[in-house]
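Annotated sample (chain length 209).
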Amino acid sequence: NKNIQREILNEFNNSNFRKAYDLAINLDAKEKNEIILKILTISSFKIENYSNAIRHGLDYLKLQDQNKDIQILNIIGTSYSILRNYDLGNKFLEEALLIDPKNISIRYNLALNLYNQKKFRESGEQFINIIDKDKDYRDSELFYGIIQSELKNYIKSIDIFKELIKRGKYPSQSHYNLGIVYQKINDYELSIIHLKKAIEYDNKQSQYY
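Output written by the structure step:
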């Protein structure tokens, strides 16, 4: 059994998550200690089996004391979000953030979860928190611009997309969303210009795939 556990750990450390999961899941229940349950949780998430990531993650948390593992909380919350159980996603992501408020990755997952719920004001608060710390973190600025449009803050939204275009960030998406904002304020001439530019950038990018 110790040899099997060493093999599981070796496969996991080498990012062979499917093999690690297959080996670990066949252990007896009494052999599934915290380490094995953590491996099962992370491996499930990595191979996109989100239901199992939740199941093993919850079993793992039961074995912990009050000091919860934020990586597992993040995985459970994100898995719930992917499966569109947004309320439970919020619950676990918020719990993780309470433990580590400076964790941008977890805050991003929460912001995205709130966005998918169309809770634009709350989502925007999370994205601006991220942008204040690192404006280049993933596509936070792009989402923030879309959120401002959803909140009918059109001038602010236009300024954000123009700034992104100026910096050469997400040119296709920025032109597209800028075109949509202009459409919302009935400036169809500018809307068409930016939507056409979005298509041009899409066509350029497709040459590299």
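Annotation: DSSP finds twelve helices and no strands in the chain.
Annotation: The radius of gyration is 21 Å.
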